[in-house]
Design a protein that fits this description.
Blueprint (H helix, E strand, L loop, with lengths): L21 E4 H9 L1 H8 L12 H20 L4 H5 L5 E2 L5 H4 L7 E5 L4 E5 L3 E4 L5 E9 L14 H16 L7 E9 L12 E9 L3 H15 L11 H13 L1
Parallel strand pairs: 1-4, 6-7
Antiparallel strand pairs: 2-5, 3-4, 5-6, 7-8
Length: 252
């Protein structure tokens, strides 16, 4: 198998004539929001955006956080981060927790009958409060100056949508979900005088009041896009579209 990017895919392509349900991940729904043209090229025509390099350090932080929260999950006790932030909850101990957390092998999914689409996504964690309500958790890691206390940048709206579609998915699987979810934000301190083979992280718990009312409308719009025989217009804010347009001008 080639180690290089395969520019034209023949698998997992939407066929408008097929009666079978088509699986659409949370990340592909986000792609539709960002650029319907790139979404169409990917899902309908099999030409996906070139993948970025994996953020292996972020993945390592995620794995360590999951291990840590799993320790308290087994003990049915709150993690100190919950106690410090006065969140009355414990990590949710459910038989499907590992399935939900693995987007490659399943994640959590819902069959959307109206569009014949299966919407899926892989979560980072779920907590549960004494009222039996689930709390959706998402891990984020970065390294920037100052304390991170909010998600107020435009590009962070995608983070909020990510949490909200997870809330929607759990509700569609008949779970009671609290409207408040939390981002476990790990910020590496780069101001230390010495490295000594250790990164020191400040961990902040950032609440987000989710609103999943946009999800149904977006799924329906994505299906209309997939069914069309016309490629959508260039995305005005899409770097990939701008790049392709610039190259096309020179190729002419």
């Amino acid at each position: 198998m080639s180690k290089y990017y395969n520019a034209k895919r023949i698998r997992n392509i939407f066929d408008p004539s097929s009666s079978g349900a088509y699986k659409l991940s949370r990340s592909k729904l986000e792609l539709f929001i960002n650029c319907p043209r790139c979404f169409y090229l990917d899902r309908r025509l099999g030409v996906g955006q070139p993948p970025g390099y994996p953020f292996t350090l972020n993945s390592a932080v995620d794995a360590l956080l999951k291990n840590e929260f799993d320790h308290y999950r087994k003990e049915h006790k709150p993690h100190p981060l919950m106690t410090e932030n006065k969140v009355d909850a414990i990590p949710y101990d459910h038989k499907d927790i590992d399935l939900w957390r693995n987007a490659l092998t399943g994640g959590i999914s819902h069959y959307h009958k109206e569009t014949n689409l299966i919407i899926s996504g892989g979560i980072d964690d779920v907590w549960i409060n004494p009222a039996g309500e689930l709390i959706i958790i998402d891990y984020k890691s970065t390294s920037k100056d100052g304390e991170i206390t909010s998600l107020d940048q435009d590009w962070q709206d995608a983070y909020k949508r990510q949490m909200e579609i997870y809330q929607w998915l759990f509700r569609r699987n008949d779970f009671i979900v609290n409207s408040i979810g939390y981002f476990v934000y790990c910020n590496a301190d780069s101001s230390k005088e010495r490295f000594d083979g250790h990164l020191v992280f400040d961990i902040t718990l950032i609440p987000h009041v989710g609103d999943d009312s946009w999800v149904e409308k977006t799924i329906k719009e994505a299906k209309v896009c997939l069914m069309s025989d016309k490629i959508p217009e260039l995305g005005p804010d899409c770097d990939f579209c701008r790049y392709r347009l610039a190259v096309k001008d020179f190729e002419k």
